[in-house]
Amino acid sequence: MGWIESIQKAIDYLEEHLLDDLTIENISCQANASAFHFQRTFTILTEISVGEYIRRRRLTLAAQELVSTNAKIIDVAYKYGYETPEAFSKAFRRQHGVPPSEARKYMGKLTFYERLVIQVVLKGAEPMKYNIIERDSFRVIGIKREFSVENEGNLIGIPKLWHEVNTDGTSERLGKLNHGRIKGLLGVCNASPENEEAGSIEYWIATEFEGNAPKEFSVVTIPASKWVVFEVNGPMPEAMQKVWKQIFSEWFPTSGHEHAGTPELEVYTEKDSTAADYYSEIWIPIK
Fold it and tell me: Where is 90: in which H helix or E strand?
C-alpha cells in the first residue's frame, strides 16, 4: 500500500466511525503508522489537526440532520458526541454562525465541510533541494519534554517549549556549546515504540556536541542513519511548514523511500529567522 493510499484508508475508517469514541491510535493503525507520524502527516497535508477535522465533520452532519429532519436538538447533541446541549450549541455556533435552534431557517448560511480525499499533485514548478547522506551515530545535548499525542498536546506544547528556551537564555547557552558537524539548534522529535505505547512523543531542543555535557543539559545519541536532508530557504515558520508539506505531498509519495522511524531533526541556524534568505534544514531518516 502506498503512502497516500494508507492515509486515505485511515480517513475512510475515521468517516465510517465518526459517531464512535475515536482515538488517534485507532485511526493511525489503519495507516500502519504511529500515532505521532499519522497525526503530523495529516496536519501537514490538510492544514488542520485530526481532532479539528473530526469536530468539523460531526458538526457538518449534525447541521444536515437538523435541516432535513425533525430530530430534537438534545438528541442530535448526544448523537454527535456532546455531553450537554450547551456545549453542542457553543460548538455549533462557532462553526456555523448560528445556534442549532436557528439552523433550520438558515440552511444556505451554514458551513459544511466535505469528506476528505487525499490526492498526489505533482507540481515540479518549485524544485526541492536535498541531499541523501549517511552518518554514524552522534550525540546531542539539550532539554527534553514528553508531550501527549492525544488531543494534539504535542502541537500545542512544542511551540511553547521553543518560546521558553528563546526567552530564558537556554538557546544562547546551547548555541555556544555547538561542536558538531551540524551547525545550529536542533528540534529532535523521537516517537519511539515505548513513547507510542504511552501515547506520547519525546521532543528535544538540542545541539550536536562532543565531550562532557554540562549538568543542566541531558544527552541523547542519534542512531546511525541514512538521511535525506532538505534545504529550507525563507522566514520561519512559513518556509519550514511549506517544505514539510512538499515532503509529504510530493517527495514521499514518489521517492520510493520510507521514514525509518528513528528521530528526525529540524536544524535552525543562528541568523535572523525572520529574514527572507534565512537558511534551515529538515533531516529525515529513511529506509
Answer: helix 85-96
Tell the CATH superfamily of the 130-286 domain. Answer: Regulatory factor, effector binding domain (3.20.80.10)
How far apart, in whole angstroms, are the C-alpha atoms of residue 18 and residue 100? 20
Give the pLDDT mean for 173-201: 83
List, in order, residues 6 or more apart from 53 with CB less than 8 Å away.
14, 42, 46, 113, 116
Q: Are strands 218-222 and 138-148 parallel, antiparallel or unpaired?
A: antiparallel
For residue 250, which of 134, 125, 146, 135 has the smallest C-alpha distance?
Answer: 125
pTM: 0.78
**Topology classification of domain 3-109:** Arc Repressor Mutant, subunit A (1.10.10)
Closest CA to 244 of 52, 23, 47: 47
What percent of the chain has a predicted confidence (pLDDT) above 70?
91
Alpha helices in 104-260 (DSSP H): 153-167, 170-176, 193-197, 238-246, 252-255
Listed in order, strand segments (DSSP E) in the chain are 130-135, 138-148, 185-190, 200-208, 218-222, 225-233, 264-268, 279-286
C-alpha 73/C-alpha 96 separation (Å) is 15
pLDDT reported for residue 122: 54
